[in-house]
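Record pair follows.
FIRST:
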Amino acid sequence: MNTPNKLTVLRIFLVFPAVFFVLCTCIPGRWIYALLMFIFASYTDYLDGKIARKHNYITDFGKIMDPLADKILVISMLICFVGLKLSPVLPVVLIVIREFTVTSVRFLLLKTGGKIVPANIWGKLKTVSQIIAINTIILFQMYIEITGNELGMIFSTISDALIWISAAFSLISGMVYILGNRKFLNLN
């Protein structure tokens, strides 16, 4: 269990306080705390990858758990947003389906061929777009909580657009991942 893998495990545990602060309406300033938790969790993703590459600490555990930790974090936040009516349902459903599909393919590849395929550029773009969307929604909620000014349609339109962009990147990256591994999946 090297440092990057410990950071990955920490990211999974940070999901709990992030979700807690998003959902717990009785805590003043909850959106600030949710933002701090989410930013810190997102930073551990950057940091574990940087350390792993720099010191050649790339492990099979990290190749599997790092993207899984990202998925747990992002899906948890998006489901909270849907429940709070801060995000439309359909793009979140598409993102969740993509994440489960790619994770299933990853495990199938591991089981059948021992091949663990790391994330490609599309997967990284997907993750960045999701982080931007989630941070933006939290920032909007912080603004509303602090000022009491909702700016209704402006925030809603921007938030929805960012979630749909994330869904588009999610679907593209999922298709690229599956098509890129079709020979290992016997899809010809």
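SECOND:
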Amino acid sequence: MQASFEHTSQDFFELSSQQRLEIIFTLNKNIKKLTELANELDVTRQEVHRNLVRLEKNGFVSKEKDGYFSLTPFAKTICSQIPSIKFLSENREYFETHDFGGVPNKFVMRIGQLSSGTNVSGVVKVLEQWKAIKSNAKEFFCEVLSEIPLDSIPTLVTQIKENPKLKCQCVLSESVIVPKGRKTLLKELNFEKLVQDGKIKRRMYKVQTVVVLNENEACVSFPDLNGKSDITQMFYGTDPVFREWCLDFFRFCWYEGSTFLENKIKD
């Protein structure tokens, strides 16, 4: 077992320098000469040269005849994996109290796609952001919820009535928490008619990770260490890669989910 980590530990050692990481990710964008790198990183030529020699020796960087430095195919692949570690490191405090829970490992392995997101803290701010994502939806709106804020329902209904082409799909946790007065509100809004007309589609799935997204923005929050949904914090992003992770996870929950049954929900 120890031998199997020999090369891995060596690569981690080479990447343990902040400057070497900066060099690699700068070269990942474009090839550079020594002076260009030094100026862009605001460090001395000697420092950059020393780290370039080291990176070249260990197969991360190659030097062309014209003096330009570029990444090797191996280093380019490494760059695609580092964002996952970077995301976890930058949000270490969050992940010391939160878990990926029932999120399949294939999504955990892609967690670096969320690295462009920002952390939104506070229940009020989280709920406001959810509402904004619904209000901003023009083409589609998808959500995976373990808790249903009462004031989010009228927002959704209004959006659908104002934009008949809007597609709405909701996955509710089998243990979803609903507010008092939900059934009365649904009746007042003629919610069932929207469901019958196919304007709103619903399914159920055993999940505590929350995802809310439209065609331009998305957010996700993970459960606490006890496996309970936590909407006091979330990650929000507009980057296509961030939204791709959220949309793929939503689709997984949708297709793995079961038929929505109202009698499973307890007000």
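COMMENT: Residues 3-82 form a domain with the Arc Repressor Mutant, subunit A fold (CATH 1.10.10.10).
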